[in-house]
DNA sequence: CGGAATATGGAAAAATAATCTACCTATTCT
DNA sequence: AGAATAGGTAGATTATTTTTCCATATTCCG
């Protein structure tokens, strides 16, 4: 269970993990040591998975996001494994979900432009057979955050 | 332009931004000071936007991802602003795109379970009028990374 | 109830890392 | 040749993390 202090710490670290522990402590009303211990514990428990640098997509030339909906007719274990492995190899695929409903899989792909998406697409379908692929282009990224809501963490988690 | 060294640095920092500069330097074959200077520059240029802690979604009780496709009939400026503002207020909405094609907007929403999604959905439609809303549930998050591909950053970026 | 065990908070010191400066060298470009 | 760029070393300074030691609650049994 995460108490109010833990959630305050996580709230801060999800926005900026460069702040000194002493500063975080000050913000939440805790001295350095207990604040530091809580952070350690959150890391041990795996609540904090890691700390990473976030880059500006445009500045690394991947300003275009495409959502790719995939349907497959092949549901064998062997195909699935090849599919997963294939997508791991594409750094352009930044998110990959197995879905319920009509669509089997959903990808979020980042590329510099539409031409490059086409190149990616060709490489994808040459690597693995897919029944149906449909691409939807994002015109604008209005919101993107890695900060998860913490309100639900106050309750007991389902097992 | 980002040269090979910059990309190596970014590659490391996208995975783990807690490493000491000296250690990063060692990994890429650069002494501390020039490595440090490059990181400073990448931050000034805004290539590195910020450094954040990533949490385990399940451990903060938001293990369920839902993609929400929204179509609207209202395209006035006033409606748009209210729409954007409304979604900013929902911490469950972690991604929000304006799309081309049939669907106008796409959201990624994180919640603890389907019941909670329903609660979210009701709050959403009570806040703003939407023409059509369609929800697709992710059964499994197979891949999720904040690390952008860096191969395209080697080229000149379009203005 | 008393007291051990546990959890939590705090102060201060020790260890580590970041930051910044100065100066030197090699390479490239004009 | 001279300017500009990039890397290197060394050292001083500051900032931060990590550890140690201690105090205070709170809980849980016998």
Automatic annotation (TrEMBL), chains A, B:
Pfam families: AsnC_trans_reg (PF01037), HTH_AsnC-type (PF13404). Signal peptide: none annotated. GO terms for biological process: regulation of DNA-templated transcription; response to amino acid. One of its GO terms (cellular component) is cytosol. Coiled coil: none annotated. SMART domains: HTH_ASNC. GO terms for molecular function: sequence-specific DNA binding. This is ArsR family transcriptional regulator. It comes from Methyloceanibacter marginalis.
